[in-house]
Amino acid sequence: MAYTSPPPSRSVLSNKAHRYRILLSLRSLLDRYLSWPLPPGPSVEIAIPSKVSKTPGSIQLYFFTAPSRPLCPRKQTQRLPPRPVLINFHGGGFSIGHARDDSRWAGTVLKAYPDAVVVSINYRLAPERPFPVPLEDGADAILWLWQEAQKYNFDKTRFALSGASAGGNLALAVPFRLHEELQKQRWASIGEEIELAGLVVFYPSTDWTRSRIERDATNPIAPQKSIIPPSLFKFFDDSYLLPAGLPKWPGTDRVDMSHPYLSPGLAPESLLLATYPPAVAIYTCGWDQLLVEGNTFRERLGGFVEEGKMASIGGFVVEDVIHGFDKKPSFCRGNKARDRMYGDAVNQLKVMWKID
Fold first, then answer.
1. What start and end residues bound the annotated signal peptide (predicted)?
2. pLDDT tens, 95-136?
3. How far apart are CA 83 and CA 86, in angstroms?
4. d(CA 282, CA 210)
5. Could you say which architecture CATH assigns to the domain 10-352?
C-alpha cells in the first residue's frame, strides 16, 4: 500500500481520534444499556505492565464471567476443573473502540459456557501507539494469562482468541508475534503445557497490500452500503500505519505491507502451521470491502484441512450485512443475523475447547 501524500501530523490525528472515540463510545453505550437483551458488564478489571513492547505502559484486561463463577484466586484446597479462556480483541481500526464494546459477544459465550472466562484486551491505540504496539500488547496479555493460569485456575491448553475487524486482524496476527516471543528465555517459567486451542474471527482485515480503493473494487457493493466514510478509513490507516515503524523488505528501506504481522492472510504456510491452532473460524460480511480477502484466507486454511494439516475451518459469509453490523444498537428489534453468527461461533468454541 503506497502513500500518495505525507500523512497528517500525530497531533492532528490524536485530536481526531479523541472526537471519534467519543462518538463510538456513545454508540457502544446505546448497545450495552438500551438494546435488549442487555449484555453483561465486566466483573473484574486488571492492569498489567507491558513487557513485549519497547513502548512502556500498561494494558487493561477486562474479565467477563458468569455470575455463578466469579474470577478469584484458587485456594490450595480447591480441586475445580480448570476453566477455558477466550481472549478477545475489539475493533475500531486500531485507533478507536474499547474492550467493553464486545460485551454482547462475551455474554453469548458465557450463556453457553458458564465455566468459561472471557478476557477482553484494551490494547493501546493508535495514533498515540501505532503498529506494532497493539500487536505486542496482545502477545503480552496472553503471556500474562498463561503465567497466572494456576492462580486463577485457567486451562493453559484451552486458550482461544477472538476479534472483530481490526481485532480480527490482531487475533490472526498475534500468534505469529507470540511464537517469536516464546523463543526467548525470559518466558521459560510459563512451562511447556501451553497452546492455542482456536481462533474465532469476525470480518478481519487480512491483506494490507491492497489499498482501500482496491478493496472496494473486489466487492463493488461495499462502498454503496458502507456507513464508514473514506475519510474515516484514511484516518485509521494514517494512525496505525506509521511508515517509520512498519516492517521493511530485507536489506531495503521499502515498507513490506505483506509482512505476516500486518497481512496474516499472506503468511507463509510454514509459519501458519507452526503457530496456528488446529481449529479456526472466519466470518465475513456480504457488504464489506474485506469480504474477498477474508473468504480467500478461510479457503486457504480450508486447504490445510483437506491435506490433513489442520483439524477444522469454520465460519461463513453473513449475507446482506455491512462491516460491524453486530455492533449497531438494536434496541428492542434484536439482530437475527448477529444471533446466527454468534451462535455458530459459540458452537465452534465447543469444538476448540473440547466440551462434550
1. none
2. 999 999 999 999 999 999 999 999 999 999 999 999 999 999
3. 10
4. 19
5. 3-Layer(aba) Sandwich (3.40)
How close are the terminal C-alpha atoms of the chain, in Å? Answer: 45
Q: Which residue bears the cell 496476527?
A: 173
The per-residue pLDDT for 5 is: 62
Secondary structure E strands in 67-127: 83-89, 117-122
**For residue 221, what are the contacts with CB-CB under 8 A and spacing of at least 6?**
286, 287
How many other C-beta atoms are found inside a 10 Å radius of the C-beta of residue 232? 16
Q: Are the C-beta atoms of residues 127 and 92 closer than 8 Å to each other?
A: no
Give the start-to-end residue ranges of the domains of the chain. Answer: 10-352
Cα gap 161→204, rounded to integer Å: 13
CB-facing half-sphere around the CA of 229: CA atoms within 13 A: 4
Residue 186: DSSP 8-state: G
Report which DSSP code applies to 127: T
Grid look-up 459459540 returns 346
Contact 88, 121 (CB under 8 A): yes
Alpha helices in 183-229 (DSSP H): 212-218, 221-225
Please write the tens of the pLDDT for every residue from 181-219: 998 878 877 766 678 999 999 999 999 999 999 999 999
Q: With CA atoms as reference, report the closest residue to 168 among 301, 238, 265, 49.
A: 265
Select from 231, 261, 235 the least CA-distant residue to 246.
261
Task: Tell me the pLDDT tens digit for each residue of 272-303.
Answer: 999 999 999 999 999 999 999 999 999 999 99
Beta bridge partners of 162: 88, 200
**Model's pTM, two decimal places?**
0.97
CA angle 64, 173, 322 (to 5 degrees): 70
Contact 88, 163 (CB under 8 A): yes
List the grid coordinates of 32.
450495552
Q: Residue 254, SS3?
A: coil
